[in-house]
């Protein structure tokens, strides 16, 4: 029996990340090689022509799984009936802009998109926020889409998670697929904490802790953390453009694991609504280690947290609390 198509919304679809992301979705990278999709692409009116060009290319690529394309600048049309929403569109920080300026622009964007999703998306729509500040944009979206369950609103820290896996695999000269269970705690910003204390590598002699194999705590507690934290800036410096391919790929990873489940014994990082686990203030969207099953994520419980990690977890929570306060001040 052929499956019914899933409707996937991508906002900011004519932008860099959108352009990298839509073919991945159409090829089955996000939802599986047997899952037909209908793509809903939204962008702002000045990008309408470019968006239409992306639609033409999707048609030209003749993706067997792609059962339809909606390309529009109308949020209601874009959100109608969608099962998965990937929120890539946002207002980027420009030179000379204060954080508050960026925040107020994004608050108004996410407020209006939240109400369109609230009224028109499919009942159990899963939402992934990619646009920065991702955690706080997700929080605003949650605020203005009260009928979408809070567990269905997440933000992307899988990019940072994948970056951490990549750094360990390069350092140890092992396949990245043999490294697992790194954790990104907190904010998708330079205050995030990439944690390898629970990470392992599959070796011919069985699974070994990353700390033991790297055998260099100075690197793991210093340069490794700052490399992952600053990776986005390093890519902008090299490409003169922000990460697009890696962001699109990790958005697919995030949704795929959420919908289809994480492998046994493996956890991944997702920005989710805090319930107070690990003494993180409830009511923040914060990145935790999670496992996924039957379309639901659960925070991995009971991991020991050392003193070094505790400080890092608290620091990024503090930044998120400040961002939350700033966002709410933009609402009034």
UniProtKB/TrEMBL annotation:
This is Malate dehydrogenase. Belongs to the LDH/MDH superfamily. MDH type 2 family. Its EC number is 1.1.1.37. It comes from the Eukaryota. Gene3D superfamilies: Lactate dehydrogenase/glycoside hydrolase, family 4, C-terminal, NAD(P)-binding Rossmann-like Domain. It is an enzyme of class 1 (oxidoreductase). Coiled coil: none annotated. It catalyses: (S)-malate + NAD(+) = oxaloacetate + NADH + H(+). Residues 6-153 form the Lactate/malate dehydrogenase N-terminal domain. Residues 157-325 form the Lactate/malate dehydrogenase C-terminal domain. InterPro entries: L-lactate/malate_DH, Lactate/malate_DH_C, Lactate/malate_DH_N, Lactate_DH/Glyco_Ohase_4_C, Malate_DH_AS, Malate_DH_NAD-dep_euk, Malate_DH_type2, NAD(P)-bd_dom_sf. Keywords: NAD, Oxidoreductase, Tricarboxylic acid cycle. Pfam families: Ldh_1_C, Ldh_1_N.
């Amino acid at each position: 029996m052929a499956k019914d198509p899933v409707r996937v919304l991508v906002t900011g679809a004519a932008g860099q990340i959108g352009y990298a992301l839509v073919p991945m979705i159409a090829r089955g990278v996000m939802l599986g090689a047997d899952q037909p999709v209908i793509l809903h692409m939204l962008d702002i009116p000045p990008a309408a022509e470019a968006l239409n060009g992306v639609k033409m290319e999707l048609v030209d690529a003749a993706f067997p799984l792609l059962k339809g394309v909606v390309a529009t600048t109308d949020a209601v049309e874009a959100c109608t009936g969608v099962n998965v929403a990937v929120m890539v569109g946002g207002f980027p920080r420009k030179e000379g802009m204060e954080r508050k300026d960026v925040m107020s622009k994004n608050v108004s964007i996410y407020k209006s998109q939240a109400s369109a999703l609230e009224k028109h998306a499919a009942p159990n729509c899963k939402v992934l926020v990619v646009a920065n500040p991702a955690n706080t944009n997700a929080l605003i979206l949650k605020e203005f889409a009260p009928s979408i369950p809070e567990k269905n609103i997440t933000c992307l820290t899988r990019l940072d998670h994948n970056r951490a896996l990549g750094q360990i695999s390069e350092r140890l000269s092992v396949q990245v697929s043999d490294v697992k269970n790194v954790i990104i705690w907190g904010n998708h910003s330079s205050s995030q904490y990439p944690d390898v204390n629970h990470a392992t590598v599959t070796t011919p002699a069985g699974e070994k802790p990353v700390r033991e194999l790297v055998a260099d705590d100075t690197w793991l507690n210093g340069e490794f953390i700052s490399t992952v934290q600053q990776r986005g800036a390093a890519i902008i410096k090299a490409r003169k453009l922000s990460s697009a391919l890696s962001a699109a790929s990790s958005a697919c990873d995030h949704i795929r694991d959420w919908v289809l489940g994480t492998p046994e014994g493996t956890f991944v990082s997702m920005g989710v609504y805090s319930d107070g686990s690990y003494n993180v203030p409830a009511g923040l969207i914060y990145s935790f280690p999670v496992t996924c099953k039957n379309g639901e994520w659960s925070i991995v419980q009971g991991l020991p947290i050392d003193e070094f990690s505790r400080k890092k977890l608290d620091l990024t929570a503090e930044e998120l609390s400040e961002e939350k306060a700033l966002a709410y001040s933009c609402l009034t």
